[in-house]
Amino acid sequence: MPLRVVVAGATGVVGRKLLPLLREREHHVTALVRKTDRLEDVPADEVVVADVLDLEGLSDRLRESGPDVVIDQTTGFGAADRDEAMRRTAKLRASGSKNLLDAAVQAGARRFIAPGMTAAYRPHGHDVLDEEAPLWTEAPGCWGEVVRALASMEEEVLTRAGIEGFVLRYGSLYGPDTEYAPGGDIHARVCGSELPLVVDGMGLTSFTHVDDAAGVVLEFLEGGDPGVYNVVDNEPAECSEWLPAYARMAGGPAPVSLTADQAKAQLDWLTVHQLTEQRGATNFRIRETLGWRPTWPSWREGFANLFGLWPG
Fold it and tell me: Domain of life here (predicted)?
């Protein structure tokens, strides 16, 4: 049955993938954008200008749209400065997502779908973590601000009366227009020999192709039980696996190797954490409860496709 769907963050890398998928299924799609210069070429039935940090204006726009489902795909990670990107994202999760949830409830929406991150899990040994693992709310610096804002937002989404709440915890997003694509930050750092391997570094990364990040939302428009779901591929990868493979496919130099002490002296704290102690996530819950399968089961295939190396 066609639904009325509002997508906030409609011009982001996931939002732009999601909009045409929704329209292909004949849902009525309202794209929520913050700036008027993004009104053109947005594949939606209607485009509405609203700032998720402005609750009053946001509530008015959602009441006019009358949504069945509200989807939050907002992010601050497009900012050039990494700390600024984290501060923006923390503000969006702490205030913007909650405003959007409030407005969705007031507008009579039945479901609310919010974005989370598997990278926010607290490091724990060498485990691959499921949805019951705690978020690292005591993490330092700007990253800690992001995780605490995420944890607070998730609790609001999952406990709000009058609406069914879903949190989709994505892995590291890759694919067209992401930081892994040519011109993106990871691509530039790898090709510029700025992202090294750390000797004995055991950091794990779970990846999510933007095709899967967008496509999985369709599963929750009417199906699935409210709750938290890891949306990742089948193969969490140590940096010693994915980083050299990515460098080869991107046509960059082999990553240099640093000791742990050298890495701490030369790199920012968050990068060292990601390379040495970050944990991967399992997609078991969403596979078993919804029968979901990622379009790109492994980052190996997805990276190859990103660089035109995958057959077909």
Answer: Bacteria
